[in-house]
Amino acid sequence: MDIKSYKDLIVWQKGIELALIVYKITEKFPKIETYGLTQQMRKAVVSVPSNIAEGKAGGTRKEYRHFLFMALGSGAELETQIEIAKQLSFGKELNFKKAEGLLEECMKMLNTLIKNLKPIT
Fold first, then answer.
1. Domain spans of the chain?
2. What is the pLDDT of residues 30-71, one digit of tens each?
3. CA gap 22, 38 in Å, rounded
4. DSSP 52-64
5. Which end of the chain has a smaller Cβ tally under 10 Å, C or N?
6. What is the pTM of this model?
7. Cα(26)–Cα(47) distance, rounded to whole angstroms?
8. According to the CATH classification, is domain 6-116 in 1.20.1440.60?
């Protein structure tokens, strides 16, 4: 497959899908969480595909890897925030399975992409 744009990357596509799922889940959070966990989760999930896109558009291999690591970090933040939401009373009523599965898949793909983009020495 010929990758012409970050939009051709499956990990980016899955990141967008994950963002849509997280937005739908957080719509069900209590209004008191609007500027708390809701905002944190949305920021983290949007950062995953955003960093992939920025890195791919950046030009150099070094920049690309840097932004992929940032996307990975945002994924770890989201993973933590999902766990917190699940343990809160309002989170027990929500289904996080699809988001967790997709996040795990994105994280694996990011790790593979980073390994395949080893710095040129």
1. 6-116
2. 999 999 999 999 999 999 999 999 999 877 889 999 999 999
3. 9
4. HHHHHHH-SHHHH
5. C
6. 0.93
7. 16
8. yes
